[in-house]
Design goal:
Elements (H helix, E strand, L loop, with lengths): L2 E10 L2 E11 L4 E5 L6 H9 L6 E6 L2 E2 L10 E4 L11 H11 L4 H14 L15 H13 L5 E5 L7 H17 L4 E5 L2 H7 L2 E6 L2 E6 L1 H6 L4 H6 L6 E2 L6 E5 L5 E16 L4 E7 L4 E5 L8 E5 L6 E4 L8
């Protein structure tokens, strides 16, 4: 099973919301769409689901063109940011409703519901209503509703953004395991780069409705094709030195080193991050961020260097990577 977008775009009036979207993902892949607010991530999901019409291009699932099909005619399982659970129905009834609409027999409904409740460890919550569940449990019910349909493609629209950081960290590996075990093409929309790198085996960086780069998480980090991608992926953010000869040199915080013959810097502040500390430095090349061991006592004045081979160079005007 594959999901294939070929030159897909969405235009409202004379404004393109997304354009030239082209990618293919297989049944063992999860593609994360990452980018700033309003870049077109959720619009892309809506086009695939059939909730919005396609203005150009085509969408195929399993080799079949679904561009003109209604949402009900596409085999899509969606998980929303807001859970979208009916508050007056129990967990069992929320899961059962979609099966009833599709005229699944009563006996088959019970078997399928029980199977997915067992899978997501929700069997003891079957009679509970959404208000009686924790945020993590409600998110699992929303995922169960997508799984129970046994679709050909999964679309997850910021499914963990309503959860606190600790709960997200606990649910993330479980969600990744469940998604990948289904062996279906999956698209995961998030604004959180850490979540994208943890959940997906491919990431597409989107800005202004177009994919700037699509690759594995490690290749995106090590080989960004533009300044936007380099700055967007990686926390702490990459250091950009003052432009020189119409070029911008950028260096990752972990690649800065102390050297008495290096660039003079002044310590501005520091943040402890558990097993590391982040130093904020002022220099003639601009403010810099540097990763160090947490026990290191940084002086007020210091010198830093970096290996030019580890630096990235970008065109000042276009932002594109200079080989």
């Amino acid at each position: 099973m594959t999901l294939h977008l070929q030159n897909v775009g969405r235009c409202i009036g004379n404004q393109w919301i997304v354009r030239h979207l082209a990618f293919q993902i297989g049944n063992d892949e999860c593609l994360a769409l990452v980018g700033p607010s309003g870049c077109g991530k959720s619009t892309t999901l809506r086009l695939i689901a059939g909730l919005d019409p396609v203005s150009e291009g085509s969408i195929a699932i399993g080799g079949h063109d679904v561009t003109k099909l209604t949402p009900a005619e596409r085999s899509i399982g969606m998980v929303f940011q807001s859970y979208a659970l009916l508050p007056h129905l129990s967990v069992f009834e929320n899961l059962e409703l979609g099966l009833k609409i599709r005229n699944v027999q009563c006996k088959d409904r019970s078997i399928r519901i029980q199977r997915v409740l067992d899978l997501l460890q929700l069997s003891d919550r079957a009679s509970h209503r959404p208000a009686q569940l924790s945020g993590g449990q409600r998110q699992r019910v929303a995922l169960a509703r997508a799984l129970i349909r046994d679709p050909e493609v999964y679309l997850l629209d910021e499914p963990m953004s309503n959860l606190d950081a600790q709960l997200r960290e606990g649910i993330r590996p479980e969600l990744r395991r469940l998604v990948l075990e289904q062996q279906k093409p999956t698209i995961y929309v998030t604004h959180d780069q850490h979540e994208a790198m943890a959940m997906a085996n491919k990431i597409a960086i989107i800005n202004h409705g177009q994919i700037l780069q699509l690759d594995t998480p490690i290749n995106l980090y090590k080989n960004p094709n533009s300044l936007f991608v380099a700055q967007f992926l990686g926390r702490p953010q990459i250091n950009c030195l003052k432009p020189s000869d119409n070029q911008i040199q950028a260096i990752r915080p972990e690649d800065l080193k102390f050297d008495d013959s290096g660039l003079p810097c002044r310590l501005l502040s520091r943040e402890w991050l558990g097993n590391t500390q982040l130093l904020y430095l002022a220099s003639s090349e601009g403010d810099l961020r540097m990763i160090m061991d947490p026990s290191f006592e940084c002086p007020e004045r210091l010198f830093v260097r970096w290996d030019p081979q580890k630096a990235f160079y970008f065109d000042r005007e276009t932002g594109k990577r200079i080989p």
